[in-house]
Amino acid sequence: MSDIAKVTVLGTGVLGSQIAYQTAYSGFDVVAYDISDEALEQAKKRFAQLAVTYKGQVKGAADGKADAALARVTFSSDLGAAAADADLVIEAIPEKLSLKQETYRELGTLAPQRTIFATNSSTLLPSDMMEATGRPDRFLALHFANHVWLNNTAEVMGTTHTDPAVYRTVAEFAAEIGMVPIELKKEKAGYVLNSLLVPFLAAAGELLIGGYADPETVDKTWRIGTGAPLGPFQIYDIVGLKTVYNISIEGDEQQQAFAKYLDENFIQKGKLGLATGEGFYKYPGPQ
Ligand code: NAD
Q: By CB neighbour count within 10 A (0-12 exposed, 13-18 middle, 19+ buried), where does 281 fall?
């Protein structure tokens, strides 16, 4: 048992709402915090939609469990009140270092001494933020994947200052909310999953841009050759081509060429991947 009972989630966007809902679904009391009442109104809609999704996709959720989870979530736009009784605060606010540091500085003065802080940041390292928390020993990263109810990895990554007991507590908590804890022994940008996925996807983009093979051929090769269910271009469609563009345009020459290809062939035509019904493939499709 992790000793965690009360959890506060900062940010109720794509990931924050999923983390908060999954935590409540697992029986914990959750406070969902966001910057304004308008944002919290949006959050309520996200939570209601998540309950519908769980009923359709998670075994047993339709037997009252999905609705019971909604009743365990309370909402607040007051950071002090939201954190006042938290054993664990999970931060899922926008991926901007200065914003995160500012938020941790404030949170550090408002939350009880015992409270553990965990960041869900995908690209920043916890050591970039640890000073701002005022409690580096009680701070680490707990990184979820989109669609937490299906893709249930939770990467646990501390800094050299994280207390090992805190690390264990958070890894245990991750398991208690139905995640598979992925324990990193030290800090690594991209954790385990993106350290594998990002170069894999980039290599697929290079095969296309270099004129070596079309997306269908690349995907087919990967599926048949490895037994994996999806090829890289199918994954690109799921991630969303606008997101892929934003990442690729910051990369090297090859990646920038791929970003331009995406822009001209898809983004300008409103084809953003699975979410818009078309990207490299059409949805719903045979693949
Ligand atoms: P998002 O833009 O969907 O949501 C961010 C939320 O934070 C919004 O509700 C916004 O109102 C709120 N917010 C803004 N400023 C705030 C503040 N000062 N305090 C509290 N809340 C504030 O973003 P997201 O995609 O959910 O990403 C959030 C974090 O999760 C990022 O660090 C990102 O790297 C990480 N993450 C995202 C994904 C993903 O697939 N989207 C996956 C894993 C990790």
A: buried
Please tell me the distance between residue 14's alpha carbon and the centre of ligand 1 in angstroms.
Answer: 7
**Domains defined along the chain, listed by start:** 6-184 (3.40.50.720), 197-276 (1.10.1040.10)
Rounded to 5°, angle at Cα 192 from 21 and 54: 20
Q: What is the pLDDT of residues 196-244, one digit of tens each?
A: 998 999 999 999 999 999 999 999 999 999 999 999 999 999 889 998 9
In the block, residue with structure tokens 């818009």 = 276
| Gap between the Cα atoms of 167 and 199, Å rounded | 28
Is the torsion defined by CA of 11, 15, 17, 20 positive or negative?
A: negative
12 Cβ inside 6 Å of ligand 1: yes
Return phi, psi of residue 129, to 5°.
-115, -10
pLDDT tens digits, residue range 1-43?
A: 899 999 999 999 999 999 999 999 999 999 999 999 999 999 9
Tell whether ligand 1 has an atom less than 6 A from the beta carbon of residue 69. no
In angstroms, the CA 73 to CA 250 distance is 38
Residue 34 tokens, joined: 């966001």
Q: What is the model's pLDDT at position 1?
A: 86
Cα–Cα distance for residue pair 94/121, rounded to 1 Å: 8
Structure tokens, 56? 């359709």
For the chain, the first-to-last Cα distance in angstroms comes to 42
On whether the CB atoms of residues 100 and 119 are closer than 8 A, the answer is yes
Indicate whether residue 79 lines ligand 1 (CB < 6 A).
Answer: no
Residue 250: partners with Cβ closer than 8 Å, 6 or more residues away: none
How far apart, in whole angstroms, are the C-alpha atoms of residue 265 and residue 277?
Answer: 15
